[in-house]
């Protein structure tokens, strides 16, 4: 298989959620170009409408307009966040500074995901959380007057960090946070700085937020999602020839850890025509096939490539030697038990893969992959195994490729369009 051409990926999921949420906190009319229109982004738009924000329909290639009074209004019913952990956790932070009760729920996958990681520190700040199903949704939050927070986070997570920063914004209180291992994506910090809030980082890893700014209505362009681009980069690296260019992808350093890993494995992805838009670096990503060798992905690298582990594990299954992903237990609480399913599905396709404690081991092989893949509705598992299925002769059957729509509408078509048979 040869890869060729120039392609694009849909708007960044993390930045789209944040653009919608910040648009809801800005007084006036904001415009968001290049927004992701997938199911997850629609979940954010839907719950914001229930909270009194006028959000135009999310349609691809169309500007999204948000009109807001700068505060959320008491919701007209239960807020269903669908499959989206980012919507849920960031929204909980925003609601903490609003003096009304709101009830949140989600689909079966989201209702299994841990929420105490955000509700416990929000309660320290003064929010009241009730009717919680153990550690999980559904739950009711009653916000109001908040206290500042100084909090060493138990897990490195951009969702926890952003939740608490947004509580600082709506509650107008200072927040200081420290992540235990590595650095998670920093889109929220960048946006807050763009709106004039003081967000500083100290050498000992503390992020300090002071509510000094005001969220004004804005016009913003969302870059392509590097986490979506990663699947196409993976297909290019595993191809037999050609070259692929993915234009205008977000290349925030806290998001492109997967490129450093691919370089260590012998690939040579490069960034071209880099520029800064709304505080975020954007570039074309160019990539060619490569001979691959195994690598070890260290614990401190994990937060910077958390969503790319399924793809990297698939790539590792074609590298010489055994690759190890250290300390990836966090994958158990993603949209599925991504760790167990990743290892199980690789084995189902004939790859030796094992979970040892909190680590994932993947042995590279040249055998043609064949087998049935169970995604449990997890978009990133479906896309990673679709990439494995691009290998010559591969017979990889995925139970649900449609679930890729959660983050990457038209993924199968895009993957088909970049490939042509080797002559
Ligand atoms: C996200 C943070 C990550 C990531 C998710 C999006 C965000 O989750 O896995 O897809 O937009 O903040 P965690 O912060 O829970 O690791």
Q: How confident is the prediction overall: mean pLDDT? A: 97
| Tally of strands | 25
What is the terminal-to-terminal distance? 9 Å
Low-confidence sequence ranges? none
Shape: globular
Broad structural category: alpha/beta
| Hetero groups | shikimate-3-phosphate
> What's the total helix number?
12
What fraction, in percent, of the residue positions are helical?
25-40%
Cα-based radius of gyration, to the nearest Å: 21 Å
Characterize the biggest β-sheet: 4 strands, mixed
Strand content: 15-25%
In which order are the strands of the major sheet placed? 2-16-18-17
Describe what this molecule looks like in 3D:
30% of the residues lie in helices and 24% in strands. The protein contains twelve helices and 25 strands. It has a four-stranded mixed beta sheet with strand order 2-16-18-17. The longest helix is centred in the middle third of the chain and has 14 residues, at 158-171. The model has no long low-confidence stretch (mean pLDDT 97). The structure holds shikimate-3-phosphate. Residues 14, 86, 157-159, 162, 184-185, 306-307 line the site of shikimate-3-phosphate.
